[in-house]
From TrEMBL:
GO terms for cellular component: mitochondrion. It holds the Pfam family HGTP_anticodon. The keyword Hydrolase does not apply. Belongs to the class-II aminoacyl-tRNA synthetase family. InterPro entries: aa-tRNA-synt_IIb, aa-tRNA-synth_II, aa-tRNA-synth_II/BPL/LPL, Anticodon-bd, Anticodon-bd_dom_sf, Gly-tRNA_synthase/POLG2, Gly_tRNA_ligase_bac, GlyRS-like_core. It comes from Vitrella brassicaformis. This is glycine--tRNA ligase. Its EC number is 6.1.1.14. It comes from the Eukaryota. Residues 335-586 form the Aminoacyl-transfer RNA synthetases class-II family profile domain. GO terms for molecular function: ATP binding; glycine-tRNA ligase activity.
Amino acid sequence: HDPAGLARSKRRRLGRGAEGRMQSDSAEGCCARAGKTDVVRQIMRSVLLACVWLLPSSKGRELRRPAFLRTSIADSKGGGVRFRPLSPLRKVSSRLRSPLRPLCRSRLNSLEEGTSAATAERTAVGVSPSQANGAPYAAAAPTTRVDGDIEAKGKGVAWYPEWSSDRAIEHITTDVSMTDLVSLCRRRGFVFQSSEIYNGMNGFWDYGPLGVEVHRNIKNRWWDKMVREREDIVGLDCSIIMAPKTWEASGHVGGFSDPMIDCKESKMRYRADQLYFARVELESGELLGYISMLDGDNNEAHAKKLVKTLMKKADVKGDTKPLELKDATQAAPEEIPLIPSPATGIPGSLTPPREFNLMFETSVGALSDAASKAYLRPETAQGIFVNFKNVAQTSRVKVPFGIAQIGKAFRNEINPRNFIFRSREFEQMEIEYFIPPDEDAWPEYYKQWIGESWDWLKSIGLREDLMSYDVHQKCDLAHYARACTDIIFKFPFGESELMGIAARGDFDLSQHEKTSGKSMEYFDSDPNAADKRRYVPHVIEPSLGVDRLFLAVMVSAYVEEKVDGEKRTYLKFHPSLAPYKAAVLPLVKNKPELVSKARGIFEKLKRRYSVFWDASGSIGRRYRRADEVGVPFAITVDFDSLQDDSVTVRDRDSCEQTRMKISDLYPFLTQQIDPW
């Protein structure tokens, strides 16, 4: 075992071709005779691997792998790293530019044809060069994924494992912090702060090139499921600014408000129902003071920390009475001066709660006076209610039927927070489903919409383990509601409402009928009805915020796994929601014929699907970039594509790859994406 001798042997091998391979075989025999121990063989393999992969490539120089390297790797039983089949007589600069990576590196099946006789012999007898434990080579007879018509026609899609069918996943997590999620959205172009170059505006966000695609896909999926696939629901698109009397009739002008508290020291404003306080008393009854905090994921744990801090400042030891957390709307007037501000920790700086109207005001016309006052709509529902008669008369629909709308809404939130979860400009997807005023029937419609809403959220990829129900108690219901159930989602900042399903009764239509003087009655002319009658329909309302759902989709899709010591982060988007359905990647960008072939595939696919082009960097880095933005499939065009019109298709989630004909790409993507 002489490193200097091995180096000289390698130099001779690089210069003499076949003679070098003979010398390497001799070197293998010398090493075996000298050591024949696993330790020596591991050292030899490591040294030679380093020499091979670190050797700089130059024009006209071909790296020829020695037989010793091939056979030693094939016989390897340790190391924990699985290697792809080796290929001699290939230029490093054109085929294997990037170093080996233990996770998701490109398996170029086209290299098989150049594999040495020694490796081919081992494969023939069932020994895999890519398996460290010497088990039978499963990939020698690739399995065929069942892909419907493709396989039925004899064009089965052969799926090869990237390393092996059981990658050594050391750790996988689907939890993500808000900091990491916001960073990912900003870095990859999903969401930007609005007016960022002017330091932004709190509560306003812009969707970037990738975010707008996911945002649009969410709306399209909802519209397809709730409107196009149903005969009893029609669509509507109302104006953002409506007659001011609309909001007077609905109660928004007089009652659409939140309780607000100001901090006179920091100039911060808080929603009083989201600011919690507690009285801290010792067991003896002595009052230590008050603590305060904003509503969060674990209020009790936070409160205990604040109590410890308060006792430390007061230099008091002992036990305290159980804490009773209340929101600031429950504070007595004499308690307000004793509650410290969450911003400063100083008592006496908070103002008493007062109502703050959430409506955005504007003016219509040339003059700005009381007569020209108007509002930006705080919800899309009222536009549906005022158009109820128009839709019923023109669409020839019969109760029960629904009207769906997707549109912008605006609320002057006191304290917008948690990224896009609570903002001042947002988008809603709402259905007003009109039903007969039957006391026995409305609960069934109500339960049906709860179930359908839950199932649809699951169908687009939301994690069911992060979802739950919250059934409102009668004391918590709005004055017009008969029942309300929220679908709760566990966001990184805590559990909060994602979607609401409310039984609104006939409150809205009756109010508009009373204020406008126009009848909102529906004439039931059903021939099967016992008696024909006129009535004001009742309403079941499934309401969902697109921006909150976007955030829930991002949280559900986030996956971080560690395999063989390397970390991979990817977004496991449902195929129908992914911003791009496929990435087209030429293996190298300095070969015009290769780029032209890949470009032709890209131009054809983009006529139907959102596809993106990436030709810069190593193939491994491009795979990672595609993974991080949630692209389901990566299509690699290599040198064999020029000969046999085939490409390598890599799956985002499993990292598995398959070799398929270019002519099969379109039906493959159709079967993988369109059924959703």
